[in-house]
Amino acid sequence: MSRIRSVTTSLPGVDRRSVLAATAAVSLAAGAGYALRPADSQAAPATVPQAAPAADVPATDAPLASSRPAAAAALAPYTRGTTLATVAAPRTASGYRRLGDGPGWRRVVRDDLAAAKAGRADRRTALAAFVQLTDLHLIDSQHPLRLEFLRSADVDRWRPHEALTVHGAVSLVERVNALRAGPVTGSPLHFAMTTGDNTDNNARTELEWFLTVMSGGRITPNSGDPRHYEGVQNSGLKLYWQPDQALRDADKQRGFPHLAGFLAAATRELHSPGLNLPWYSTVGNHDALPLGCYGHGDSYLAEYAVGGRKLMSLDPAEGVKLERLISGATDPMGTAFHDLLKAHARDMRRVTPDERRAPYTPADYLKAHLDPAYTGPGPLGHGYSAANLSAGTQYYSFRIADDVLGVSLDTTDPGGHYEGSVGTAQLKWLERTLREHADSYVIVFSHHTSGSMSNTRPDPARPHEARHSGAEVVSLLGRHRNVLAWVNGHIHRNVITSHTSAAGHSFWEISTASHVDHPQLARVIELTDNNDGTLSVFTTLIESAAPHRTDFADLSQTGLAALYRELAFNTPGARTQRAGEARDRNTELVLRKS
Question: Are 491 and 473 contacting, i.e. CB atoms less than 8 angstroms apart?
Answer without folding.
Answer: no
